[in-house]
Amino acid sequence: MRQHHRCSGTTRRELLTVLTAAGASALVPLCGSLAQPAPPARRLVDTHHHYYPREIIDAWQDYVSRNGEGRLQPNVANWAPAASLAEMDKSGVETSILSLASIPGVWFGLDAAGMRRMSRLCNEFAAKMVQDHPGRYGLFASLPMPDVDGSLAEIAYAFDTLKADGINLSTSFGDRWPGDPAYKPVFEELNRRKAVVFFHPYAPNCCGGLNSGVPPGLLEFPYDTGRAITSLLLSGSLARLRDMRWLFSHGGGVMPMLAGRVAFFAGARKDIAEIAPNGVLAELQRLYYDTANAAWPTSMAGLLKMVPASQVVFGTDFPYVPTALQADALEKNGLSAEMLGAIQHDNTTRLIPRLAA
């Protein structure tokens, strides 16, 4: 297994990426001061709700401390299921889909065996939350990527034993993106299972420290979502894997702005009929996108010009972004009641029918 994400000289940048992933929480107060009682009509399904078992918090903190990078953000270090439920209750969230923030995912300098153990531990922890709180949670299970064999085994366990609702992947693994041929067996298995696959952004080895003074979470995360989508498009993965349901964070990152440009240049390729049989925009419009930290009017305007409202689902990025802040922002976009309800709730229950029961 090639562990690109463990390249020498990247430790500090990777850790800064980890810490700045939580940077949004430093820009806005968490929960208390912004969260208001939910309007009676608000029924939210949050597709982008992070969780942290104690073991991963301790391993993460130990890793950060050993590398001289201080302490974790309090909203992560003090995470507990009770805080998650309290946030949901006061913000009108009926159900949240649990996922790990992909930075650092299940890797803390671990080898393949260690990554497999951590992935299993996290998935079982989240599955117990689903079981202990009926109707309140779903699960996007983590995989020990880029370990392909370990990921195939965890896919089987996650779906067949834990009854996960989907899979949570990073937008990149070191300096490889999901359209890379090395990951073909994983995606073919997910396609065979007609899986929902949720992509959370990552700052890849190449780029996390390029822009001095600009935290990777501000720019590199949305850029990497664009890289991941383009990788899947140009590799023919979107055209080939027709049974998967693809869900991308943060309104698709930079894709709404770049969609026309990508379509123009890709249209000149000789294999365009194979990679995008109905056109590039049609491929982009088949994907799903969440509103996490993208519910702002300018972001939503671009997203809803690129895709129909039926492809947009509500997400928050809790605990990094307060739930009420995102719910309020979405409601200020001037959407029709039908469109708003579809994004808040209905589109996700169509994507994951179990949640409609």
Task: Describe the protein.
- By secondary structure, this protein is an alpha/beta fold.
- The chain has one domain: TIM Barrel (Alpha-Beta Barrel), CATH 3.20.20.140.
- It is 46% helix and 11% strand.
- It contains 16 helices and 8 strands.
- The protein has helices at residues 11-21, 24-27, 54-66, 74-77, 81-91, 112-132, 148-160, 184-192, 216-234, 237-240, 255-266, 272-275, 280-284, 297-306, 323-331, 337-351; strands spanning 44-50, 93-99, 137-142, 166-170, 196-200, 245-248, 288-290, 312-313.
- The chain has an 8-stranded parallel β-sheet with strand order 1-2-3-4-5-6-7-8.
- Helix 14 links the parallel strand 7 and strand 8 (312-313).
- Helix 7 packs parallel to helix 8 and helix 9 runs parallel beside helix 11 (255-266).
- Mean pLDDT is 86; it is low at 1-34.
Question: Key terms for this structure?
Answer:
357 residues, alpha/beta, TIM Barrel, eight-stranded parallel sheet, 8 strands
Poorly predicted regions:
1-34
Using the coordinates shown, work out and report the CATH topology. Answer: TIM Barrel
Largest sheet: 8 strands, parallel
The CATH architecture can be given as Alpha-Beta Barrel
Helix content: 40-55%
What average pLDDT do the residues reach?
86
In sequence order, what are the helices and strands, one letter per element?
Answer: HHEHHHEHEHEHEHHEHHHEHEHH
Helix/strand class: alpha/beta
Question: What is the H level of CATH, i.e. the homologous superfamily?
Answer: Metal-dependent hydrolases
Strand tally is 8
Strand order of the largest sheet: 1-2-3-4-5-6-7-8
Over all CA atoms, what is the radius of gyration?
A: 19 Å
Domains (count): 1
The geometry reads as globular
